[in-house]
Structures are given as structure tokens and as C-alpha cells.
Amino acid sequence: MTDSQPVRTMPARHASVDALRGITVAAMLLVNNPGTWSHVYAPLEHAEWNGCTPTDLVFPFFLVIVGVSIALGVVPRVEQGADRAALTRTVLVRALRIVGLGMLLHLLAWWWLDLAHYRPLGVLQRIGVCFAVVGAMAIWLRASAQRACLLLLLGGYAALLAAGGTLEPWHNLPSRVDTALFGDLAYKYDAATGLGHDPEGLLSTLGALASTLIGLRAGALLRSGRPLRLLLAAAVLLALGALWSTWQPLNKNLWTPSYVLWTSGWALAALWLAHMLIDRVQWPPLGRRFGANAITAYAGSGVMVLAMLGTGSWGWLYRHVFDRWITPLAGAEAASLAMAIAFVAVWWLPVWWLDRRRIYLKI
Questions:
Q1: Which of 105, 107, 119, 106 is closest to 184 using CA atoms?
Q2: Looking at residues 257-281, what average pLDDT do you find?
């Protein structure tokens, strides 16, 4: 789903943000599409429940960058006197398109893969909701009010989790809310117990909103031209996240406040490093092509994977090209990773082609 006319010009922006967004999208494609889920290196898998692997950094990195992008793209228009109501409508319409695209992908998955049920929630749906809410905050709230909202989100969500009585699988408050609202439409559903859970569920979106709001404030620091403050903020968030995890553990499935702070700290550190190397030292913006057409790459690759899974060609390709030749030499995990890397490389070609022609598809 794109606008009827491709956008052939890009606004002025920090190349480091596009590069970091692109690296994050490439990482999404890498960890989401191994040759086989039966053989995956441990760092490329999510933590089973509590904990934080490198893979658990990918989605919060993207949400932090969404917030940074709002600070760089929406806030300057507010400062230039744009009509706030009209700008809010623009943000909300784009958010609805992102949510709609996510729901469409899940509809394709349900139909193409003959799944037992349709799942209404998902990654793009969460991105759309976070973009809408934080975009509206950027338009209507001052910086002090945004910081207050961040504290309220973190403290309020922590209180809700504590009031739920347990953070164990299936029985925690977010999972109980998912069960009540979505039943067997949740990502996981145990028919024997009647319990469900969705990693992109409703209540845990409070944590995701906090991640995006941190990105908004990080974007303000980036615009201020004082990168040292960005690095200091990263250090503070990492320390707070580590401390908070002694009470409420790092947990992506629940998007706990400690997980928000810990992953946001790493995201801000990566943003600082990218800014220093790319915007200031003028290193090549590795990953920028993926970043300039991020949603296109994510959604397009998703459709491609569904088509290959639905026709059986994904399994055939893995068995006859990667597993047959690489597993005897380096093991099944290496073969699975090789196919994932090849998939990312294949998708580098269309984003390279689009960038060469200065075509940047927006939804």
C-alpha cells in the first residue's frame, strides 16, 4: 500500500538515522527468516521469556528510531507554524495505513498458509499505533509534558504489572488481557487452559509507547547539536534499566519498563555512534538504502516469504541449496544463517534500485 505517486524527493535528514533504521530493518529480515527454525544460533533467537538477546534489541531499536524520525520530520513543521490539526490528520492517516498494511499481511498469512485463525495484532500494527500516539504528542505537547508522559507510562505500566500478581507466562496481566480481548485470535492460545498471549498485545503497547517517546526526546537531543547529551542519556537509561530489572525483569513479550530502558539505552548509544561516524566524520551511511524504504522492504519481504512458504519453495530452497552443501561443512545452524543472509542480500537489490532512481515509497 503506497501513495498513488512515488515520492521522488527526500526531505533533508540525518543520514545516520536512515542508516541506523536500515541496519535495523536488515536485522529484522535476518532474524525473522532463517532457513529453518529448527537450527538457529542462540544470539539470533529471542529470549524464551525473561532476558535480552541481541535479537531482542531489534524491534525496540526500530521504535526508538520512529520517535527520532518524528522529532526530525514532524516537530520542525510545528515550529514553522504548520496547522496542527491538519498535521495531526496527516500523522493519523499514515498510522492507519501502517496498521492496515500489517492487518493485510496477516490476512495473507491466514489465507496462504491455511492458519487456524486470523491474528489481528502484529509488528506493523504496533508501529502504527506508536507512530500515531507519539506523533500527536509531538504536535500538541511541550517537551516537559512529553517527559511527564514518559514517566507516567513507565511508572503506571510498572504498577499495573505489579498489581497483576505475577509475570510468569500465561498468567501475567498482559496475557490475561489478551485472553479476554482476543481469545484464540492471540499469537499463542492454549485451548486446554483457555489462556492466550500476544507479544504485540494491547497492554504491553504501553511499554512500546515509552520506547517511541524516548526516541522522540532523543531526536530533540540530536537536533540540538549536542551529541554528548545523547551519549549521557544512553548511559543513564542503561543503568536505570539494569537497576529496574532487579525488580521487574527484562522481558520483550511483556515489554517491561526495565526492557524499555535497557533497550532504549543501547538504541541511543547506537544513534550517537552513527551520528558521530556518519554525520560528523562522514563515513559512508551503511544501511541507508534499507532505511529510506524501510516499510517497503519489511512488507515486501513479508509477502515474498508468505508466497514461498505457501508454495513450498522456501523449504525446497533450503534443503537443496543451503542444507545440502553447507550443513556437512559447517553445521545446520550455519546453513540456516546463510539462507537468512542470502534473503537480506536479495532484498538489498530492490532497495538499491529504488534509491538509485530516488524513489522513496511512502504509505
A1: 119
A2: 97
